[in-house]
Design a protein that fits this description.
335 residues, alpha+beta, D-Amino Acid Oxidase, Chain A, domain 2, 13 strands
Amino acid sequence: MPWESPILSASATIASPETSLSRRFPGSQLRICSLRVTEALAVDLPKDTIKYSSKLVSIEEEAAGFLKLLHLADGTILKTKVLIGCDGVNSVVAKWLGLKKPSLSGRNATRGIVTYNDGHGFDNKFMWFFSKGLRFGVMPCNSNTVYWFATWCPSKQEEEIEENPTKLKEHILSKLGKVPDQARAVVEDTQVDAFVSLPLRYRRPWELVCNNFSRGNVSIAGDALHSMTPDLGQGGCSALEDGVILARCLAEAMSRNPNGEVEDKEEYKRIEKGLEKYAKERRWRSIKLIIASYVVGSIQESKGKVMNYLRDNILADSLVGVLMKISDFDCGTLG
């Protein structure tokens, strides 16, 4: 049975699931397992192009300044003409560029995946619920696998719960309120060792306004550049945008030297200008995503009575519209 374009459903509040809104956004979502993306990207590369389990420890400039020397944890030293740090929120490359580690948002995200051998029985919908201090969502990945998430603001006492998967599961279930039984069952059916819970971090947007994230032949992409709260579901999507634009900006510089021979200063300058162009294109898009994600999440997860009223009675439909509109971004083609 074909997996058709989804209907996005969102409950205005967990306490009243019957007040849910439902809107159709044809073709607006495509769900792909990240492992499959990695495999698809890697399959056409020459053998041994990718070096797995290689932690970057430090970056050194070659004497002439045109190459970077990458020191790995296993003692290996790599020489590179171009260095793009896609090394996440703890990015060594971002630190080398002078950026601070992304800040804690004061919120946590707990996630899980459960597989039903005989099928999960869900419609092709993204179910989305908000309540006081909690966002909860359930999304079928295919006919058998369901992904779910819960974001919440832990108190000092609740911070210790993350260390105990059994208590964490009980805690999440206690916060779900009157969600539909089928949605609650997804959490109940998830094995405790499949729970993943981490504090949410985001890059303060003014860092990208005030600092350069491109220097010479070095830049960053993905979470290293624009770590954001997951409230728009655009973290991985924006990283793919980075990749397309980065490839396009570097294509001219690298295509002039197809044999990979070092051209020293001339080639270095072309690479530098290509990365500057990339940074210019990605700066404000990244800032917009970071701000929008933070604001949407704060509204949806608010504990304030006034904000909860506005969210449940006025803003619910608008928030869904924001999510769909901001994801509708054309980053162009590789050519």
